[in-house]
Design goal:
The complex is a heterodimer of chains A (209) and B (116).
Chain A: H1 2-19, E1 24-28, H2 35-47, E2 65-74, E3 77-85, H3 95-100, H4 105-125, E4 131-137, H5 145-156, E5 161-166, H6 175-181, E6 187-189, H7 198-208
Parallel strand pairs in A: 1-3, 1-4, 4-5, 5-6
Antiparallel strand pairs in A: 2-3
Chain B: E1 3-7, H1 9-15, H2 18-25, E2 28-32, H3 38-51, E3 59-65, H4 74-87, E4 92-98, E5 104-107, E6 112-115
Parallel strand pairs in B: 1-2
Antiparallel strand pairs in B: 2-4, 3-4, 5-6
The chains are: A alpha/beta (209), B alpha+beta (116).
C-alpha cells in the first residue's frame, strides 16, 4: 500500500511536469464503441474539422491518429491537448468476419493483419497517455475481458480516466450497467453521434485533468 | 474431443505466453492457477495479436480472483497483498480458450461461463 501511494505521488509529479509540454488524451475502448465518432465530434466542436473515418465495419481505425492542439474551454477554464484516437482493442480478429461484411478475401486478410498491428500499437501507447477516455458502447454488456484489461492497465499506470458511455441516442442504451459494473470510475453518458451531453464530458475533462 | 491443459503460472512467466499460444492454436483450452495481472493480460493480448493467422483468429480469456469475505477488511487485504508478494502470484484462476471454440466467456463474481 505504501509502495502504491509512492507510485501515485511519483506519477502525479511526472504528469505535473509533463503538463507544461504536451498533454495527450487518449480514446481507448473495444472495437466499434465509437471512439473515432467521438474524436470527430471533439475535433468538429473545437477545430471545425474531422479526425478520421468512422464506420460500422469493425477495425476501421487501424493506426494511431493524433490531432494536435485541441483547445477546449468552459466557464473560463481551458485546456489544450493532443487528442489520440486508438484502434479498438480485441482479443480475436477473424478475417472471415470482414468477408461477411462484403470485403474480398484478400482485402479481408490485409485488414485483419493491419488490425492486429493496431491492437499492439494501442497497447504500446498506453504508457504515453496523460488521461484516457475509455469509450464503451452503452448498448452492450460492459463486463468483458477487454474492458477489464484496459481499466486494469490504466489503474496500474495511475493514468486518470473517464468512462464514456457512448450511443445513448439508441433506445437499448443502458448507462446503469456500466455504472454498476465499474462504479469506482467517473462516468459520463453521451452520444458522440448526436452530441447529446457532450458538454458534460468537456466539463469533466477540465475538472479531472 | 476437447483438450484442457493445466499450466502453472510460473511457466507463463518463464515462457512469456509463447507455449500457451501454441496450445491455444492447437484448439486446447488452458487453465492457469493464478489471476493474471492487468499488465500480463495486455502483454498476452499483444502476443496473441502477433500470432493471429488465417487459421488462428485469437483467444477468449477471463480471470477470476479467489476471495473470501474475510479478505474485504483492511487486515484481509494487507494479508493477501503480503501473501501475493511472497508467492509472486495473485490467488485465482485464468481460463484461456481459442476463439474458434470458445465464443464468449462470461464472468460472474465466483464463476466463469464458457459459451462454445
Amino acid at each position: 500500500m505504501v509502495i502504491k501511494r509512492l507510485r501515485n505521488i511519483a506519477s502525479s509529479i511526472k504528469r505535473l511536469f509533463k503538463k507544461k509540454k504536451d498533454i495527450k488524451i487518449g480514446l481507448y475502448g473495444p472495437v466499434n464503441s465509437g471512439k473515432t465518432t467521438l474524436a470527430n465530434r471533439i475535433c468538429m466542436d473545437w477545430l471545425g474539422e474531422e479526425m478520421g473515418n468512422a464506420s460500422v465495419v469493425p477495425h476501421e481505425t487501424r493506426e494511431i491518429q493524433i490531432k494536435e492542439k485541441v483547445s477546449i474551454e468552459d466557464n473560463g477554464k481551458n485546456l489544450t491537448f493532443n487528442l489520440v484516437d486508438t484502434p479498438g482493442i480485441a482479443t480475436k480478429i477473424d478475417f472471415e468476419n470482414f468477408v461477411k461484411v462484403g470485403l474480398k478475401k484478400k482485402e479481408a486478410k490485409q485488414r485483419a493483419k493491419e488490425a492486429t498491428k493496431g491492437v499492439i500499437e494501442s497497447i504500446k501507447w498506453l504508457d504515453d497517455m496523460d488521461m484516457v477516455l475509455v469509450v464503451l458502447d452503452s448498448t452492450k454488456d460492459p463486463i468483458n475481458q477487454v474492458n477489464i484489461t484496459i481499466l486494469g492497465n490504466l489503474d496500474a499506470r495511475n493514468i486518470p480516466l473517464v468512462l464514456v458511455g457512448n450511443k445513448t441516442d439508441l433506445k437499448i442504451a443502458d448507462i446503469s450497467r456500466i455504472r454498476n459494473a465499474f462504479s469506482k470510475y467517473k462516468l459520463v453518458g453521451i452520444s458522440a453521434k448526436t452530441g447529446e451531453n457532450i458538454n458534460e464530458l468537456y466539463q469533466t475533462i477540465l475538472r479531472e485533468l | 474431443m476437447l483438450r484442457i491443459k493445466f499450466v502453472p503460472y510460473e511457466r507463463i512467466k518463464e515462457e512469456r505466453f509463447k507455449k500457451i499460444l501454441k496450445d491455444l492454436a492447437e484448439n486446447t483450452i488452458v487453465l492457469v492457477d493464478a489471476k493474471l495481472n492487468a499488465k500480463e493480460e495486455a502483454a498476452l493480448i499483444a502476443e496473441t495479436m502477433r500470432s493471429v493467422s488465417d487459421k488462428f483468429s485469437g483467444i477468449e480469456l477471463s480471470s477470476i480472483e479467489i476471495k473470501s469475505k474475510k479478505d474485504n477488511g483492511h487486515y484481509g487485504r494487507f494479508k493477501n497483498a503480503l501473501i501475493e508478494r511472497i508467492v509472486g502470484k495473485k490467488r485465482g484462476m485464468t481460463v484461456l480458450g481459442p476463439a474458434k471454440i470458445v465464443q464468449k466467456i462470461k464472468r460472474n463474481p465466483e464463476e466463469l461461463l464458457l459459451y462454445m
